[in-house]
Design goal:
By secondary structure, the chain is of the alpha+beta class. Helices cover about 35% and strands about 35% of the residues. The protein is built from three helices and five strands. β3 (about 70-75), α3 and β4 form a beta-alpha-beta unit. The longest helix has 15 residues, at about 1-15.
Length: about 120
């Protein structure tokens, strides 16, 4: 699954290049996932629970594919530890074991890809 998603992201990056807003890349990913027939949810709400307290923090995962892969998209100068922490937290709270962090604001997309397995 991660290879297919990376392939779609590379195709988008080849066509658009760096420099757009994250939302533009997200719209393109949703389009490509639909064409590829990959079931996905865009901006899936992630509930946060502390003991018996449900917190309304409005965390949203960019893309969740087949309920087993989280894809977080970025368009930043460089990925920082906070971006790693974000996807790792999403993985922990959702119980999803695999995540991809894709930063489109790089000359070559391969330099903006991080894969996480928990």
């Amino acid at each position: 699954m991660t290879r297919r998603v990376i392939g779609l992201a590379i195709d988008i990056h080849r066509h658009l290049g760096p420099g757009l807003l994250e939302s533009a890349y997200e719209a393109c990913m949703v389009y490509e996932l639909g064409l590829a027939g990959i079931p996905h949810v865009q901006q899936q709400v992630l509930p946060v629970k502390y003991k018996e307290l449900d917190l309304d923090c409005a965390y949203r995962m960019d893309l969740v594919l087949e309920g087993r892969l989280i894809v977080e998209l970025k368009a930043v100068d460089q990925l920082l530890p906070i971006h790693d922490a974000q996807i790792l937290t999403y993985m922990k709270l959702s119980g999803i074991k695999t995540g991809l962090l894709l930063n489109f604001n790089v000359p070559m997309l391969r330099d903006g890809i991080k894969r996480f397995i928990n």
